[in-house]
């Protein structure tokens, strides 16, 4: 066997055809808001798999590999059991399936909270093993030191305040935040703290609209709303929710399709055709070559 190898330097290995668009960068997203003003709202959706990423990519600015994959893909009760390995497996699939959107991978519960050192070890794995350009982490004032630590060491951080699902046991459920003075003040203080620490963008989830608007005005980086306000600098939804894959979704979800009904119809037709031997037809069978 030959032991001589030729290094393949053809550029089309790195730039497949059809020629993809240039991927959006963290400074490009951050730069969409200057002096408190943002133009066209940023579009973000969740993606966990390569094919979904391929379909969403041309229409989005950002793809979030959210730890919501715990419920959506794995049928878990909450995001708490999601592991770093799960996030890395799905994160790398989404990077492989996209060329245009900035890909952000969620840091799962237990992978970053202990200390900046703990966070950078986990975040470094995410960046090296997925190829994603940024990570997202929940928490505000308590995480500000970590946000600064990572941002200053080459790891862009998207923050997440308000209804933070990893804190479900502290919040006592998936409760809308900002209805009382204490939680309203906390949302604002949390967002300001991580903005000042260097977060390039902040998700505001499950917050009453006036507080979401006040928070968006109070921070310099773009806010991405989910159950917040159209006045946020961008919006995100869980893709499977907005496609209508689930019957029960939070009030803030708008269903843009009824994929559950479409899948059910297709599978019903398939099952009927298998049982009646109508499938496979001639077009789907192989015959000996003449
Ligand atoms: O995990 C997730 O999908 C999220 C978004 C809903 C913001 O954090």
How would you characterize the overall build of this protein?
The protein has one domain: TIM Barrel (Alpha-Beta Barrel). The strands form 2 sheets. The protein has an 8-stranded parallel beta barrel with strand order 3-4-5-6-7-8-9-10, surrounded by 5 helices. The longest helix has 17 residues, at about 180-195. Helix content is about 35%, strand content about 15%. With about 290 residues, the chain is α/β, with parallel strands linked by helices. The chain contains 12 helices and 10 strands. Strand 5, helix 6 and strand 6 (about 135-140) form a beta-alpha-beta unit. Helix 5 (about 85-95) packs parallel to helix 6, helix 7 packs parallel to helix 9 (about 180-195) and helix 9 (about 180-195) runs parallel beside helix 10. The site of 3-methyl-2-oxobutanoic acid has 12 residues, from strand 8.
Tell me the layout of helices and strands.
Blueprint: H1 11-14, H2 26-30, E1 33-34, E2 37-38, E3 42-46, H3 50-56, E4 62-65, H4 69-72, H5 84-96, E5 102-106, H6 116-130, E6 134-138, H7 144-151, E7 157-162, H8 168-171, H9 181-197, E8 201-205, H10 209-218, E9 223-226, E10 234-237, H11 239-242, H12 259-275
Parallel strand pairs: 3-4, 3-10, 4-5, 5-6, 6-7, 7-8, 8-9, 9-10
Antiparallel strand pairs: 1-2
Helix pairs in contact: 3-5, 5-6, 6-7, 7-9, 9-10
Bound molecules: 3-methyl-2-oxobutanoic acid.
């Amino acid at each position: 066997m030959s032991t001589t190898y030729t290094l393949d330097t053809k550029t089309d290995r790195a730039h497949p055809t059809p020629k993809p668009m240039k991927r959006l960068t963290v400074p490009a997203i951050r730069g969409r808001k200057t002096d408190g003003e943002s133009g066209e709202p940023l579009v973000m959706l969740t993606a966990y798999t390569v094919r979904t990423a391929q379909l969403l990519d041309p229409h989005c600015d950002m793809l979030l590999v959210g730890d919501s994959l715990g419920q959506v893909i794995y049928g878990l009760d909450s995001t708490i059991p999601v592991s770093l390995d799960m996030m890395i497996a799905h994160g790398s699939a989404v990077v492989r399936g996209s060329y245009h959107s900035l890909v952000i991978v969620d840091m799962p519960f237990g992978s970053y909270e202990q200390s900046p050192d703990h966070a950078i070890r986990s975040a470094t794995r995410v960046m090296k093993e997925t190829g994603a350009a940024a990570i997202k982490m929940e928490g505000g004032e308590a995480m500000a030191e970590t946000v600064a630590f990572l941002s200053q060491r080459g790891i862009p951080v998207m923050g997440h305040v308000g209804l933070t699902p990893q804190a479900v046991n502290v919040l006592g459920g998936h409760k809308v935040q900002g209805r009382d003075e204490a939680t309203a003040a906390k949302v604002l203080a949390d967002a300001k703290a991580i903005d000042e620490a260097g977060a390039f963008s902040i998700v505001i989830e499950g917050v009453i609209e006036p507080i979401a608007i006040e928070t968006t005005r109070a921070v310099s980086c773009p806010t991405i709303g989910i159950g917040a306000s159209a006045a946020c600098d961008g919006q995100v939804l869980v893709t499977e929710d907005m496609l209508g894959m689930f019957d029960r979704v939070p009030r803030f979800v708008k269903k843009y399709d009824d994929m559950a009904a479409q899948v059910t119809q297709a599978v019903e037709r398939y099952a009927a055709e298998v049982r009646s031997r109508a499938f496979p037809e001639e077009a789907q069978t192989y015959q000996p070559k003449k």
